[in-house]
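Input structure tokens:
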């Protein structure tokens, strides 16, 4: 009798151990457990730690609650200003309602991926090329809102969406490079013109100051000579005033002599008289 009782107790203990081994489940800290009993959602979501289920009746699904980083495949589209671009992005999301993520959508990761691709193509068609290149923060916010709106009903929260890269055709890259080069050249010309304007104003002020003080011009002349002579060379520069050159030019011209002028005037007068016919001469010619 006693051996049979001990055998029964041993068998019951073994069955209990096996039952506990089959019923025990461990939910990790970053997971939540969703329990289905005979196919129906049963009870609340199981928190991290040890939990028990009914073997062959309950089925526990563990849902990862960590932030998922999902790259969005590159999408090709035409912007609002008719430029063909290829844009890829990345979306960060996490599950906030484990039961809804399992019950309301078949595969929440695939659903978020497809929604992100569709939203990215829509953003490309609504944006200009300049916005894609320089105003990405606003586009990221719009893309996040478009993905997050349907994902809320699935128990998904989109934390952030970032546009990674914008690929342009080679012809567009060359055109943008030429535009940037032309813009830099324009700014360089404006800066040079501004510098010339400021320099001309300063030179005009200096000329006005030197015209009011003639000694300043002489001092400047001496400073120039000292600066040239300070260098070790065999060339000596001596500035000559322009007024002196004009004076020397006038001095080299020969003066007009009054005697020569009188002789030239007398010869011209004699030649003129010789050309005019006289009445006496005509009468003598007719008599002859």
């Amino acid at each position: 009798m006693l051996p049979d009782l001990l055998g029964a107790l041993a068998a019951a203990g073994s069955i209990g151990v096996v039952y506990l081994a089959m019923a025990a489940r461990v939910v990790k800290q970053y997971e939540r457990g969703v329990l289905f009993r005979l196919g129906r959602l049963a009870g609340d979501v199981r928190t991290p730690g040890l939990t028990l289920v009914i073997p062959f009746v309950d089925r526990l699904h563990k849902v990862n609650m960590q932030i998922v980083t999902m790259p969005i495949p590159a999408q090709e589209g035409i912007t609002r200003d008719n430029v063909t671009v290829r844009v890829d992005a990345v979306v960060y999301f996490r599950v906030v309602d484990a039961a809804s993520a399992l019950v309301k959508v078949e595969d929440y990761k695939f659903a978020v991926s497809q929604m992100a691709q569709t939203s990215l193509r829509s953003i490309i068609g609504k944006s200009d090329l300049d916005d894609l290149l320089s105003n990405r923060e606003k586009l990221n916010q719009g893309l996040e809102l478009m993905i997050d709106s349907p994902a809320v009903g699935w128990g998904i929260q989109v934390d952030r969406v970032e546009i990674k890269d914008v690929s342009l055709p080679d012809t567009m890259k060359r055109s943008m490079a030429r535009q940037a080069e032309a813009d830099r050249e324009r700014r360089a010309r404006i800066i040079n013109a501004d510098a010339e304007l400021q320099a001309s104003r300063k030179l005009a002020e200096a000329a006005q100051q030197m015209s009011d003080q003639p000694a300043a011009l002489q001092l400047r002349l001496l400073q120039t000579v000292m600066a040239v002579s300070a260098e070790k060379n065999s060339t000596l520069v001596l500035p000559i005033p322009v007024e002196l050159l004009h004076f020397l030019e006038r001095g080299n011209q020969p003066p007009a002599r009054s005697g020569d002028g009188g002789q030239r005037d007398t010869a011209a007068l004699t030649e003129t008289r010789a050309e005019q016919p006289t009445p006496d001469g005509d009468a003598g010619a007719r008599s002859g």
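The first helix runs from residue 2 to 23. Confidence is low (pLDDT under 50) at residues 265-270, 272-276, 278-288.
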